[in-house]
Design a protein that fits this description.
Elements (H helix, E strand, L loop, with lengths): L2 E8 L4 E6 L5 H15 L8 E9 L2 E10 L2 E8 L4 H18 L5 H6 L1 H11 E2 L2 E2 L5
Antiparallel strand pairs: 1-2, 1-5, 3-4, 4-5, 6-7
Helix pairs in contact: 2-4
Length: 135
């Protein structure tokens, strides 16, 4: 799996924090994150991912893997050819991690704990690939 970026966004698509795991420009990351809410469509979706042909990272299509967190989204942007099961497991790990640092789960709480979250994200992912841990 190549994880391009991890982010916490509002339901409207505003990025609160974002961490890129591969080299890309800020404008490109903002473009990827801005495209996400437009792809979601209406409420009540059964899926936790959206694939797209129109938004590309270099020459690859991307996949948005997301999980609602109260008024926010935990969002991973991956390459489309990545393993969806690994993507979902990584998303679950990110989603369990966020409430550990942010008890209120609101925008201000995410901002206040941004550095702790970014460092925790870095513990999970290295160079776009998930770190393997032994129990």
């Amino acid at each position: 799996m190549v994880l391009l970026a991890a982010a916490v966004t509002t339901k409207a698509g505003k990025a609160i924090i974002s961490r890129q795991f591969v080299e890309m420009s800020r404008a490109h990351v903002e473009g990827l994150l801005a495209a996400f809410p437009k792809l979601l469509g209406g409420e009540g979706k059964q899926h936790t991912f959206v694939e797209t042909e129109s938004v590309r990272y270099e020459t690859e299509s991307v996949r948005y893997v997301y999980q609602p967190l109260e008024k926010l989204f935990a969002l991973l942007v991956t390459s489309r050819n990545s393993n969806i099961l690994e993507d979902l497991e990584t998303l679950r790990l990110f989603s369990r991690l966020i409430p550990e640092y942010c008890k209120n789960m609101d925008e201000q709480d995410i901002i206040d704990n941004a550095f702790n979250l970014i460092f925790a994200f870095d513990e999970i992912i290295a160079l776009g690939y998930r770190e393997s841990f032994s129990d």
